[in-house]
Amino acid sequence: MDEDDANDELVTIDSWHEFLDRPDGPSVFRARDNWQARLAAAALSISRGQVPLVFEQKVPCSSANIGPGFDVIGLALSIWLQIRLITGEQRSEPSSYNCRITYEGKGSVDLRADHNLITQTALYVLRCHDKRAFPEGTHVHIINPIPLGRGLGSSGAAVVAGVALASEVAQLGLSKDRILDYCLMIERHPDNVAAALYGGFVGSYLKELNPDDMKRIEIPLAEVLPAPQGGEDTGLTPPIPPYDIGKHIRFPWAKEIKCIAIIPDFEVSTADARRVLPTTYDKADVIYNLQRVALLTTALGQSPPDPVLIFDGMQDKVHQPYRKGLIPGLTEILRSVTPEKNPGLLGICLSGAGPTILALATENFSDIAEHLIGEFKKEGITCDWQLLEPAYDGLTVTHESAESKETSGMTYADAGVSIEAGNELVQSIKSAVASTKRPGADAEIGGFGGTLDLAAAGYTEPPTLVQAVDGIGTKLKIAFAMDDFSTVGIDLVAMNVNDLVVQGAEPLTFMDYYGCSKLDVADASRFIKGVAEGCKQAGCALVGGETAEMPGMYQGKEFDAAGAATGAIKKGRKILPDKKAMREGDVLLGLKSNGVHSNGFSLVRKIIEKHGLSWMDQAPWDSSKTVGASLLAPTRIYVKPLMPAIEQDLILGMAHITGGGLDENIPRMLPKHLAADINVSSWPVPAVLKWLKQAGNVSNKEFARTWNTGLGMVLVVNNDIAQKAIDTLSQAGEEPMRIGALIARKDEGVVLHGVEHWS
Ligand SMILES: Nc1ncnc2c1ncn2[C@@H]1O[C@H](COP(=O)(O)OP(=O)(O)O)[C@@H](O)[C@H]1O
Ligand SMILES: N[C@@H](CCOP(=O)(O)O)C(=O)O
């Protein structure tokens, strides 16, 4: 509807909701902008019995390569392509594929649905799902501030937007990983699309495809998406992408590093810039790039950033030298700045295929920009410049109107729960889960419950079953900060099976629970693969689990996880601890921990915060790791080293040192009349715990009741067979340490000697 049609009631609407709230519905609207006019028109079509879709997508631009990472690295940056979509628009003229396109922003693009990169991509995805056109009355409004053909990933953003557009209009519920598969059928270098889709500083690779797929190289688009993929409709179904074509990982990025983009006033098409590249490379040049890229991805995550490492790390011999013919003065411009001459500068490179130049810096942004603009000017080229920051969100989709859908057949996907994503997750974890198979438990997922055949597991007479349930705790927060979910699953298993083994039980099965607001298949799969790894370390089968997608329950990508283990003790064997058999003089053995394990992380986080450290900083206690990576070291699983000693009846009791530390856990295995008399100088305190104690000024008492102090397990063994127990544990790979003995109890259940050793 148009403002000129106004004749009776004239109303300004601010939102879609405001319109819907009006019981009568105004006959004429004055829209705040074109988009408001479209909303109004869609609102009218509702009153005529149609149900429009209204949503907005945002996709960031990206800078690919960052010097040596040709076709591998991409950095999402803070200029966003926006797509506003509405269906059910009333039109006098029919439009091809039911789609009308309007455009505002940089450059000009083809507005025909089968020629515009965004809608052409969407049509390809729709056709893969047997849909020949957009829903009736589709209007795609593109707001594009990303300069075209300048090396800032305008096409990568357009392709991501196109796939996501199809997913939304046809309610396909594609996960981000599946969206990537579709994107990679179109733009074959994964660097831009992976960054635009996932956000942040991203490394990616493309799996090797079959020869037919490989033949369909990227841009020009006509070659990539011939009919029936993206051109005229032939009624055929185009090739559907295989699953999991590309892999990505997010690298850390130091927050003080900003990006200066110097954008010349001419275009270089990526296709042209790839044609000038050689088909074979000199071995020395390839090694030159590999050496730099390996260091660069870590160097850009360290605070404070090291200018020497970054400047050298951003040099390239694989694409920039060959592109100098397309970008006048390129070599001289890249050489015209150094961290020594230009304070604040960290490194410089061609952005993507150019002609934009990307300079990374921590300060003096305008001085650096003016210098580079001056260099281009010598070549007669004028430039624009922008100071950009990493865009961490990647693709986002916002629905303007949930209510509109409520009037018609609502779907679970509308409510934020994707069955397809759930199915995809099951596919991606199947083999990891199956690898945990053990006698008596197949570890095949898909059943309503997990089964265990006790006889096949070696328990022919009724055993005593022991069960445990636990979570990971706030260690998860560090996994979120590091975007690394590969090891917290091991922690989850460890917390459960270590509790079972101290009772003398052999862990047989495990089940996990994963709750999130929006299922991210890649994250959930990394987590569950960690759970499977933990199960293998413990020798138990992962027989099932639950993934709960609960929109609104958690913040963003956060999730919670819990798990439960079942173990068994053979008929006739002891359930530990055997308190009655314990005597004064019995020996206490300690088994080493692997750092903080999974307890006391609220205090850990507080200390790290108080010291102004970021998770990406070099760990003050271990220069080879970041703070986050070091703290994420998974909890040790003691099942396999302990089982032989348990089976030989060499152990009277065990304490798993978790929350509550030595002070709280050791008395749990002792009779009331005995106490543990312990010499704390008999085991080494891991460097991380030493640092935390000192940095947090944590008292000895607090230290002993918060963290494990270096012992993950404490065992009671009879004095006469202590050496045999030590030998058996050593043969199983442990380094048991004599840490004390049982004494008659006075007050405390644990008496610590030599605590000054901790200070
Ligand atoms: N928002 C958009 N809408 C439609 N087409 C687009 C859009 N963004 C990019 N394109 C297409 O992609 C081309 C640029 O792609 P490319 O040569 O790879 O450069 P870039 O470095 O910007 O990605 C444009 O000329 C245009 O055809
Ligand atoms: N790795 C590609 C990246 C192209 O990026 P664009 O932003 O220029 O499209 C290449 O260097 O060719």
Automatic annotation (TrEMBL):
Gene3D superfamilies xref list: 3.30.230.10, GHMP kinase, C-terminal domain, PurM-like C-terminal domain, PurM-like, N-terminal domain
Catalyzed chemical reaction(s): L-homoserine + ATP = O-phospho-L-homoserine + ADP + H(+)
UniProt record, GO biological process: 'de novo' IMP biosynthetic process; adenine biosynthetic process; sterol biosynthetic process; threonine biosynthetic process
EC number: 2.7.1.39, 6.3.3.1
Gene Ontology terms for molecular function: ATP binding; homoserine kinase activity; phosphoribosylamine-glycine ligase activity; phosphoribosylformylglycinamidine cyclo-ligase activity
Record's keyword annotation contains Transferase: yes
NCBIfam families, A to Z: purM, thrB
Function: Commits homoserine to the threonine biosynthesis pathway by catalyzing its O-phosphorylation.
Family from the record: Belongs to the GHMP kinase family. Homoserine kinase subfamily.
Name of the protein: Homoserine kinase
Taxonomic source organism: Extremus antarcticus
Lineage, top ranks: Eukaryota, Fungi, Dikarya, Ascomycota, Pezizomycotina
